[in-house]
Amino acid sequence: MIGSHTIxxxxxxxxxxxSPLRKKHGLIWVYEKGKVPQERSLRVQGKQKGYFAVLxxxxxxxDAASEQAITDLENECNDVLFCSKSELFDWSSSTHRRKLxxxxxFLYSRATQRRAHSEKIGLNIYEELSMAxxxxxxxxxxxxxxxxxxxxxxxxxxxxxxxxxxxVSQGKTAAEMxxxxxxxxxxxxxxxxxxLIQKHWQVWRAPEGMEFVSSDNPVMNFIPLPHGPxxxxxxxxxxxxxxxxxxxPGKCLIIGVPxxxxxxRRVEAETVTRTNEALISICDKYVYSKTRSDQVQALTQQYAxxxxxxxxxxxxxxxxxxxxxxxxxxWYGLDPxxx
Length: 339
Description:
The radius of gyration is 23 Å and the shape is elongated. It has a six-stranded mixed sheet, with helices on one face. Strands 3-2-14-8 form a four-stranded antiparallel sheet. A two-stranded antiparallel sheet has the order 1-4. The protein has eleven helices and 14 strands. The protein has helices at about 10-15, 65-85, 95-110, 110-135, 135-150, 155-170, 175-185, 185-195, 270-280, 295-305, 325-330; strands spanning about 5, 25-30, 40, 45-50, 55, 60, 200-205, 215, 220-225, 230, 240-250, 250-255, 265, 285-290. Helices cover about 45% and strands about 15% of the residues.
């Protein structure tokens, strides 16, 4: 299996220092909860074997083809990402904005925390399907609906149970879930990029002596709270949510600011600290910075991983999601709201 970088090396290179031995990969400061900061080579940092592996038709695993396809997508955006650090970068260019929107959505979609959240949702669905299959009354209703539509009595409650359990058996293994994760990256990225391109963009520039950090979950959706802090863990289409994407130690792109806001502005040290605190709190495991920082180390020890997708973030409030039972009823032409 190939050792894939969960976050692109080229992106992290924007936060790295040159290797003293003139090696290709730079060095970056890495922070983890419960550990002291370490300066590590980007050649090995954030690598995971089989991260983009998918099942072949013969049920063997392959990551070479998907790795190359993903690398090609990254490379399409690298020039724009690199140039976005410049004061001369043309933020009004629709081509630049489309490429950056795609890249931001892509890094969000492939991040380790999003991947774990997707797997958890899948397992929950399979569990609910298994429970629904054991509901004899529901299975009989579904069988009756199919028989009525077909005009003949072809299914029984038992046969409908076997069909439902067949859905459970497909896609439940780790290899199958990883295949779904990789296969859906492009469609999810295109969907999320559509939200970003419609919003107003602004670049925050850090004051002298301050730096923005990044992490293994470098795209953060947050809502600025009235009393100051930035509250992370919201969806791209949440009302009032901003999207933060650190471009480099000195710059962070903020998407979703009020229309008419300046294209770029110098922010205060406190704003950088609040941004870093929120970015750190929603990381999966690693926090990255160009310069070793006692403040970043302290924030990492206090806040790293405080927000987890599906636990205390990305959890819809006040919205009732459809149940698996309801979806089954809907698939077979029944009222999804009936018990």
